Amino acid sequence: TIFINREQFLMENIKIWLYMIVLIFVLYGLKEQQNVNIWNCKLKRFFAFFLVCTFILSTICLLTYVFQINILIDEPDGYSHIGMYDNRLWGIYNPNVGSSLNALSIIISCGFLIEKKNKKITFFLIINLLLQYIHLLLTGSRTSFYTTIAGVALFGWFSGFRKIKTVKRTILCIGVALM
Questions:
Q1: What is the mean pLDDT of residues 131-142?
Q2: What sign for the dihedral angle of Cα 128, 143, 80, 134?
Q3: Which residue of 12, 94, 102, 177 shows the fewest CB atoms closer than 10 Å?
Q4: pLDDT value of residue 96
């Protein structure tokens, strides 16, 4: 959809997509001299921090939608919006950036759901999934929506074969992807 919609913000959409690719390579790069367990621990901490940050940001963005806040800010390079504009939730940042964060947050939340956690963390992850999904739909970004569907479905598919005990949680992740 980036190339289909090339008349509208082509370079910005490509830039966001490339940032996501670079982020994945940076985060998943493993140095040979580093212990894998230490790396996994650091990665889980980073992902947990990322989930909390996206939860807070998406909550603020959805509050701009609920309270119908719409502010136009005149900037040197054009206009910036806060709230709903042009049937898309801008919230506090560009809808394409927000939807990219939502897509990553949904996939990471599903990853944490697969692991056995206590009930409070599981409750937070389910609320986060719903919040991110609603925000993703309101942004109107088709690329991030399709990426989320593919990413969660693939994640659920491969994690279900790795751990047979997690079939219910895998079905939940695939169900989220198909919503």
A1: 92
A2: negative
A3: 12
A4: 86
Q: Could you please report the per-residue DSSP string of 73-120?
A: EEETTEEEEEEEETTEEEETS-HHHHHHHHHHHHHHHHHHHHS---HH
Residues whose CB falls within 8 Å of the CB of residue 29, separated by 6 or more in sequence, listed in order: none
Of 93 and 138, more confident: 138
* Structure-token match 């900037």, residue found: 75
Between CA 151 and CA 23 the distance in angstroms is 15
Question: 171 or 47: which carries more pLDDT confidence?
Answer: 47
Q: What integer is the mean pLDDT of 52-66? A: 93
Task: Please name the amino acid found at residue 20.
Answer: M
The pair of three-digit structure tokens given for residue 37, joined into one six-digit string: 């367990």
**C-alpha torsion sign, points 143, 89, 130, 179:** negative
The residue among 68 and 167 whose pLDDT is bigger is: 68
